[in-house]
User: What shape does this take?
Amino acid sequence: MPQTRRAARPSRTRARTEPPPARAPRRRSELLSRVLVAVPAAILAIVFVDIGGVGWMLLMAILACACLSELYRMLGEWRPVPAVGFAVAIGACLAARYGTIADVAGVALLSLPLVFLAVLTRGQSENSAATITSTLLGVLWIALPFACAVLLRQIPHVGKGILIDVMVGTFLGDTGAYLGGRLFGRHPLAPTISPRKTIEGLGCGTLATILSIVVASLYQQTWLPHSTALLLGVAVALLAPVGDLFESLLKRDIGIKDAGSMFGAHGGALDRLDAILFTVVVGYYIALQLPH
Assistant: This one.
């Protein structure tokens, strides 16, 4: 009798199962992340504004050097001379603390012969124009505004208040622009420079800046007229996005997202302070028009 072949039983070996995909960590909202970075920085800044004097000057010199370091790293192909930028930034802050705007200008003017001597010392014969230009960009864009922040704090009676108004208006305006862009943004503001910025966000940021400075002026009525507060609010609202877009233009041209990593996912010092580098200068000149 022929044997019948037993049907092969299905293998009892346990099939290898794919492990369940790892659950992506819950992404913290960008707004919360901004707050967690901005609040401690704002508290630190206000404490040093209140201290004033040498403490404020030292903080400005340190931040200036941090921003210059990021800028010169970005422009590395142009071979800038960081030592000149650092020396001028520190010298300008010292001149602002112990001298006048004329002394600050004198220190800044020294940057040209200094960078020329540095190029000669290097024995550099090529791309010297790029070296000089990139070094002087740091002096004009970064060192001088930080010196203006020192000068502004030095103005008797009004400097401290105007400095706080400028800081509050700049940073609340940035937050308002972010929220407005997220909620209402439809039309790009400068798509070739910063695609995420929108006209609607700009409008919300402008409104937030002006309102914050005007409201702050209600507690400064003894020395800050409403008309001057409104002028300051409008000036800060106009210049803050210009400062932001200025840095965005450089980063897009170089092909990087952030200038540094001092604030982790929120970039470097230059990324956080790009707007105030413009607004603190106009704040200084408006403060000079007030009785002091």
User: Anything to note?
Assistant: Confidence is low (pLDDT under 50) at residues 1-28.
